[in-house]
Amino acid sequence: MHRGIYEAASGMLVQETHLDVITNNLANVDTPGYKRRISATSDFSALLDRIEKVSEDTETKITTVMPADMPFKGREVIGSVALAAIFSEDVMDTFPGVIKDTESQLDMAIDGQGFFALTDENGETFYTREGNFVLDNNGNIVNPNGLMLQGEGGALNIGNNVRSVEVNRKGQVIVSRAEQGNIGNEIIGKVAVFNFENPTYLRHHGKNLLTPTEQSGEAENVENPRIWSGALEMSNVEVVTEMVRMIEAQRIYEGASKALMTHDEQTTKLITSFSRG
């Protein structure tokens, strides 16, 4: 009886998390470069069936075994809670968004896979597909939050006496300067683009910034990136798809809620019947 209550409650908790993920996707439908998150679930027994074993090299490894094969020291397995659901993980959908022309000199969009690298004032590196960059007071190319865009040799600084800035398809930043009546072009650096072995496992840090995880792997430099200048990649969130997912999550939540109330009523009746006996 109580097993049914636990399973219904776990279903409600999972759908609440699904709704949080979907709501966040919808909130970022107009955020340039945003990649939607997709949530996944697994059954509760999948966690209980995992046991840790220490190998000869003292590294802890997790092995999955069947409940009947686990060392319960004389205890008898009478069942499982396989129907109980838990939130497993949420991963990033790396499908590219639509490229939109902006005609702004410092707006950039990556053609294909890869991410821009940004550093904050503490030297911490983040990654993003959001390419709406501006210049700060020191001539650095920064994102709207002031994080510096990284080139292959470090932060990109265009210096003084700049007439115009252009980024070509290879990611080279070309500056036109006006000095002593002469106008000349100078390549001050190249935009660094990085990719990961499993980019779907990158974590959202906030403000459309991504950080690597153990599952995503370390950042690897893309040797020949392709950059669209004067354009932005829009969010890959599809409103209709997210609304359908939201309706599904709400209906599953309502079904689990009704199941929980039914089990609760049956438990009350059972207790009342036994108490009279």
What is this structure, in a nutshell?
This protein has helices spanning 2-27, 44-48, 239-276, and strands at residues 37-43, 50-54, 60-64, 85-92, 99-101, 108-110, 115-119, 125-128, 134-135, 141-142, 148-151, 154-155, 162-167, 172-179, 182-190, 193-195, 203-206, 209-211, 220-221, 227-229, 231-233. It is α+β, with helices and mostly antiparallel strands.
Structural class: alpha+beta
Look at the structure and give the mean pLDDT: 83
- Secondary-structure element order, N to C: HEHEEEEEEEEEEEEEEEEEEEEH
Binned, the helix content reads 10-25%
Describe, in plain words, how this protein is organized in 3D.
This protein has 277 residues and is an alpha+beta fold. The chain folds into two domains: 2-94 and 245-276, no CATH class; 99-233, no CATH class. It is 25% helix and 33% strand. Strands 7, 8, 11, 12, 16 and 19 form a six-stranded antiparallel beta sheet that branches. Strands 13-14-15 form a three-stranded antiparallel beta sheet, with no helix packed on it. A hairpin with a 5-residue loop joins strand 2 (50-54) and strand 3 (60-64). The longest helix is centred in the C-terminal third of the chain and has 38 residues, at 239-276. The model is unreliable at 49-54 and 72-78 (pLDDT under 50).
